[in-house]
Amino acid sequence: MKQGKIIKSQKDLYYVNSESETLMCKARGNFRKKGIKPLVGDNVLIEYLSDGEGYITQICQRSNEIKRPNIANVDQILLFATIKNPPLNLYNLDKYLAMCEYIGIDVCMILSKIDLADQKEIDDFVKIYEPIGYKILCLDNYDDFPEDEIMSVLKGKTSAVSGASGVGKSTFSNNLVDINVEIGSISDKSKRGKNTTRHTEIFKINENTFLFDTPGFDSFDIDFIEDEVELKDTFLEFRDKTCKFKDCNHINEPKCGVKEDLKNGEISESRYKNYLMLFEEIKKRRENKW
């Protein structure tokens, strides 16, 4: 019996990295009977057969699971964004951050293609997210790739590269791993990236460091939150505020600490606006569910 990590799946085949080799495995039939599907990122026990093949016999307990793409055991998300080409979408960005906070996954924000942006645009982005507590790495994938700094962020963790299509995820992966990830272009019509990552796969950087390559989240939904009142806890800058009401949603309530900080410029207007939009989106979905 060997232990390994699922690094890629194709239909009913799972590629499991175990020690110094990758085995092509199938899952035992009892998983299907129990309604359990092995996921990329799962730590598993395998029964070794021969010629690089085996059977997955047990899935170890997951620390977390993300629905889209369906992956498991993510230590941190490398959340990519660009100011231009494709244009910055703060609403999708804040929605994704809310999901990471809800699940409890650390986030490092990667502001890519900074050579295409003005310094003021870069500074404005950093001023929104750095004071909240998010680590931000600014990079130009081609001319100034801070590999040492990036490796210090990745070391000893399983990280998922995520973000909208065309933001430089594949170029980033190519700069770190000896692979040939297809690099996407930008659609002239929509100015959005063409998603070139067609499946989820993990690349092993070294013994304890893994990197997911995941599809974009252009059609990302917020169905991970059932009730809109839970949303406020996913915005870091809203936590520990002194409000008149303990269950304050920071919208219409009097003597609200969040709205006071917003008025004083201590909370980003774009973040608060996106919070209100997300609140309404979740509320409508909950009401329409019934």
TrEMBL record:
All copies of domain EngC GTPase, residue ranges: 72-218
Domain (CP-type G) spans: 63-220
**Keywords for this protein:** Cytoplasm, GTP-binding, Hydrolase, Metal-binding, Nucleotide-binding, Ribosome biogenesis, RNA-binding, rRNA-binding, Zinc
Task: Explain how, and how many, cofactor molecules are bound.
Answer: Binds 1 zinc ion per subunit.
**CDD domains, per the entry:** S1_YloQ_GTPase, YjeQ_EngC
Name a single GO biological process.
ribosomal small subunit biogenesis
Q: Which cofactor does it need?
A: Zn(2+)
Cellular component terms, GO, for this chain's entry?
cytoplasm
Q: Hydrolase as a keyword? A: yes
Localisation: Cytoplasm
User: Per its UniProt entry, which superkingdom is the organism in?
Assistant: Bacteria
For molecular function, the Gene Ontology terms on record are: GTP binding; GTPase activity; metal ion binding; rRNA binding
Annotated residues that bind GTP are located at S112, K113, I114, D115, G163, A164, S165, G166, V167, G168, K169, S170, T171
Name the principal localization, coarsely classed: cytoplasm
Q: Where is the signal peptide?
A: none
In its keyword annotation, does this UniProt entry include Repeat? Answer: no
Identify the residues that bind Zn(2+). Answer: C243, C248, H250, C256
Q: Which HAMAP family match?
A: GTPase_RsgA
Q: How does it assemble?
A: Monomer. Associates with 30S ribosomal subunit, binds 16S rRNA.
**The protein's role, per its UniProt record:** One of several proteins that assist in the late maturation steps of the functional core of the 30S ribosomal subunit. Helps release RbfA from mature subunits. May play a role in the assembly of ribosomal proteins into the subunit. Circularly permuted GTPase that catalyzes slow GTP hydrolysis, GTPase activity is stimulated by the 30S ribosomal subunit.
Would you identify the family this protein belongs to, as annotated?
Belongs to the TRAFAC class YlqF/YawG GTPase family. RsgA subfamily.
Q: What is this protein called?
A: Small ribosomal subunit biogenesis GTPase RsgA
| Gene designation | rsgA
